[in-house]
Amino acid sequence: MLLIPCPNCGPRDETEFHYGGQAHVAYPENPNELNDREWAEYLFYRENTKGTFAERWVHSTGCRQWFNMVRDTVTYDIQAVYQMGSPRPATAVPAAAESGTATTAANSTITLGDAASSTPASSISAPEGATK
Amino acid sequence: MAETAALENSKKTRMARQSPASLLRAAFESGSIAGVVELNELAFLTMVGVRVDPNTEAGTRISSVTGGLPARSGDVYANGETAVLWLGPAEFLVVAPSEAHESLGGDLIQALRAALSDGEGQVVDLSANRTTFELTGPRARAVLEKGCSLDLHPRVLKTGSALSTEIGNIPAILWKTGDETYRIFPRASFADFLGRWLLDAMREYGSPEVP
Asked: Could you say which of B81, B102, B128 is where a domain stops?
């Protein structure tokens, strides 16, 4: 079980929280101008990050407040907890986040990323291999 | 005159009301172990949910009715028999004896409502939302530790602090009112479950300790 540091209440069990999905998904400025594909991407398409991931959580059994958290989806290491609305803080190993990410980008190197990210040390060296 | 009659009437009807754990009253009596750990229900306490930002004018007015508002998680502002529990940065629970309820002639809720007036926030009578268990005795902490993952050691959880957490896998508010006395506020629909859960957790302390 995760021990999540709530910014108001301090460390509490994961069972007291609810997950809110990816953080920093901005509402489109002009939703009427989007075509169906762009609207569907805003609604349903989310990163499926392998590595550090910014996500929203709510402490539903405690103070009932939302907050953002940067968590490593591989190691479950919680790297930062910050307020809703504030930008994502720079975390210790941003390079590892890029390498392990299976994004929807066109030139995605999913197989390479998967193979390289079996250990944190090798996943840091992955970008060099990925850019070849 | 009409108000007095209504008050007399509500005093009669309160004899007919049943607290959420009233069916467990006999079980609480037989399950309590005098001097070790005792459980009973404090029925029908007046509880008022207050949602107001303490840094606004409305917050100041509410604060002058209760005497003060707690500032952070765990804090309780106690003023005589009325206490204000911190539930969130802008959410508080006012707990008072049942006589403070307007149906018994009290004026706490009206005073809070008047203090909020048109300010941003809420004052809601939540007296029927939760019931109150009082768990007391030298083994009370050991009983709670079976189902609550907070650190209940006195060096961490001080007397007079209240936390909203999970006890026996259900959400409840835990308020440490004395060194060996805890008040537990489960929602009314969970009262039966939590009452039985606590009785089960208390049972082992009725037997002589195995050396």
From this structure: B128
Number of domains observed in the structure of chain A:
2
Cα B113 from chain centroid (whole Å) = 20
Contact B84, B77 (CB under 8 A): yes
- Closest residue of chain A to B150, computed from CA coordinates: A12
Which member of A8, A10, A15 has the closest CB to residue B166? A15
A:33-62 residues touching chain B, CB 8 A cutoff: 61-62
Contact call for residues B174 and B182 (beta carbons, < 8 A): yes
Kindly state whether A108 is in contact with chain B, defined as any CB-CB distance less than 8 angstroms.
no
Q: Are residues A79 and A104 in the same domain?
A: no
Residue B6 lies in a domain: no
Which chain B residues contact residue A16 at CB under 8 A? 165-166
Residues of B in contact with A8 (CB under 8 A): 72-73, 88-89
End position of a domain, from candidates B104, B128, B152: B128
Q: Residue B103 — pLDDT band, cuts 50, 70, 90?
A: confident
pLDDT at A93 exceeding the cut of 90? no
CB contact under 8 A, A9 and B171: no
Are A99 and A69 members of one domain? no
Q: Give B190-206 pLDDT, tens digit per residue.
A: 999 999 999 999 999 99
Centroid of chain to Cα A56: 9
Cβ contacts below 8 Å, chain A against chain B, sum to 37
Distances (CA, A) of A36 to A27, A44, A103, B70, B113: 15, 12, 21, 49, 48
| Cβ within 8 Å, pair A63-B87 | yes
Domain that holds residue A67: 3-92
Same domain? For B135 and B191 the reply is yes
Reported as a single tens digit per residue, the pLDDT across B109-126 is 999 999 999 999 999 999
Domain assignment of residue B71, given as a range:
45-128
The answer to whether residue A129 scores a pLDDT higher than 60 is: no
Averaged pLDDT for residues B38-49: 95
Cβ neighbours for A20, distance < 8 A, ≥ 6 positions apart: A55, A56, A57, A58, A66
The number of distinct structural domains making up chain B is 2
